[in-house]
Amino acid sequence: MVDALNIATFKQKLLCGELDIVEHTEMILQEAEKLNPEYHYFNVISKDLARMQAKELQREIQTSLKLKDKKKLQQLQQKKLLGVPISVKDAICVKGVESTAGSRILKGYLPPFNATVISRSINEGGIIIGKTSQDEFGFGGFNVNVGLDYQVPKNPFDKNRTTGGSSGGGSGFVQLTKYTHASLTESTGGSIVEPAAFCGVVGLCPTYGRVSRYGLMDFANSLDKIGATGKATADVAVLLQSIAGFDQRNATTTDIPVEDYPSFVGKPIKGLKIGVVSVAFGEGTDSFVAERVWKGIKALESEGASYEEVNLELPITMGVPTYYLIATSEASTNLAKYCGLRYGKHEPLEGSFNEYFTLVRSKNLGEEAKRRIMLGTFARMAGYRDACYLKALKVRTKMIEEYKKLFTKYDVLMTPTAPIIAPKFDEIAKLTPLQHYMIDIFTVGPNIAGLPHISVPVGKQNGMPVGALAIADHFKESTLIKLGSVLEKTCGAGKCGCE
Amino acid sequence: MPKQPAQQPAKQRDLPGTKILVDEQLITLVARNARLALTPEETKRFVVQFKELLDAFSKVSKVPTDDVALMIHPVPIKNVMRQDIVKPSFSVETALANTQHKKDSYFKGPRIVS
């Protein structure tokens, strides 16, 4: 068995018979089961589904090779994720596999349908290996806000530290697995890139509307995006290519054509203009984090990019309050459907509707979920709605205008993904909710504005990874893929003076 | 579970930017609207936390937004209509498969009217 081939090489080896899908699938399932008691990356490992999918694909390949059926082999070759194990954030519905968004209130829910990203992944030959750990409904930046009865995932480099959240399970497993694999992750305010940075992997959050949200359990429907996390930008590009595009089941997807993302991997970046958000490298950001990201920017410069320091005002100064006012307002209504009637946790049918609904929610939601529902309820209450929720939506307009103005001059904007390396659990426990929310300071801006962004590892400090964040204009994912693949080549582990 | 007080209209209508009076009464009212029953400890904790959070969030009031349109979605979204044609959907059995409360072909819920 060859360790962690990229998806393109893996596929080639499968099709010439050098690798066996069933064996590869079995190995990664065993690895996931072995790691899980220690690291808690999976809420469910979908062994039966994965084995069934692997056997079916293997049978197709072997039959085609035996019969020398060129047409069928060509069809198989065109499957972008042929035989690739895919882990899935728990908030994304997989038919027949318990899907809870990490919340006890949905315990036992077996979706009767696949999310569009799952249908598309399977159609491209992907093998669904399980549902990954997350903060309950995505409510967190450190993945410590898991639902009641769930366990907190641990950082692959130091088990006393966080994976980051909320897509922590997926990012942690991407880092530790020895096998070819990519993860379907999801971001509302930074939940793809932040755990990617803390776990030393690549995370790409696409433009809002680039990928269907059908089958995603909403946190905040004007902010949620499904994206991809992988060991390298090339793998992330393949997974995004597989899931992107218009979906008639999700009216917020766009019919703008999807670019051929993998073709941008390794393309020269000569002439790329980078706006370096200078405030993100100053007070509040650890000096060694700033230093590592600067080295990444200099490495890009050496490859032909140019940079200038720029000012980014509103997304940095007003990003966190604006984000939390919008996100919690939307969450407070979205979560109303979890009331113990149609799925998930039930209680005996006693009392009035309101008493029953209140009982189910109060017993089965964790504290952060309650806090965010309460914040959102407050922000939408009569007398506060205009000043909180609607005001935040206007500030969002101004933020988008500010970004758009910068994108007339620059192709990408860069900051550290997070101002710190992954903190220890005992440090997180001392934070107030507001201090907890501030970890999102560099990631909420692109999420509020629906802009695509990528986190790429730029080395380590004392054994812990540091991530650089690049943000592009709407639907310019290809620019980020180009940048990411060059950055990891020039500034990855062992390069440009890092550990 | 503690019994919840009857709903009262919010007396405070302060805008962010001015001090919002966060007390147990406000937290209890919000919890009631959110259909959450808080323990006394949770209520006390949320009073402290909401004071800090709402004070920080009130910063948005400083951003001038006169004549600024609000954006519900971050990218322009077209309204999508489809033809009103019946298509195959879940069977009743599938739709009811995840509930413990059902009767015949229906979901069974708690009483709404006393």
Please give a structural write-up.
The complex is a heterodimer of chains A (499) and B (114). In chain A, 41% of the residues lie in helices and 13% in strands. In chain A, helix 5 links the parallel strand 2 (85-89) and strand 3 (127-132). Chain A is globular and about 70 Å long. Chain A has 3 domains: 7-264, Amidase signature (AS) domain (Amidase signature (AS) enzymes), CATH 3.90.1300; 273-318 and 394-477 and 484-491, Alpha-Beta Complex (Amidase signature (AS) enzymes), CATH 3.90.1300.10; 321-386, no CATH class. In chain A, helix 2 (21-39) runs antiparallel to helix 3 and helix 11 (319-334) packs across helix 14. Chain A has helices spanning 7-15, 21-39, 47-67, 70-78, 116-123, 168-176, 193-199, 233-243, 287-302, 314-317, 319-334, 353-364, 367-380, 386-407, 425-429, 433-437, 444-448, 477-491; strands spanning 42-45, 85-89, 127-132, 182-187, 202-205, 225-230, 273-277, 306-310, 412-416, 453-461, 464-472. An 11-stranded mixed beta sheet of chain A has the order 1-3-2-4-6-5-10-11-9-7-8, with helices on both faces. By secondary structure, chain A is an alpha/beta fold. Chain B has 114 residues and is mainly alpha-helical. Helices cover 29% and strands 4% of the residues of chain B. Chain B has 3 helices and 2 strands; from the N terminus they run H-H-H-E-E. Chain B has helices at residues 24-33, 40-57, 92-96; strands at 102-103, 106-107. Chain B has a two-stranded antiparallel sheet with strand order 1-2. At the A-B interface, helix 11, helix 12, helix 13, helix 14 and helix 16 of A face helix 1 and helix 2 of B.
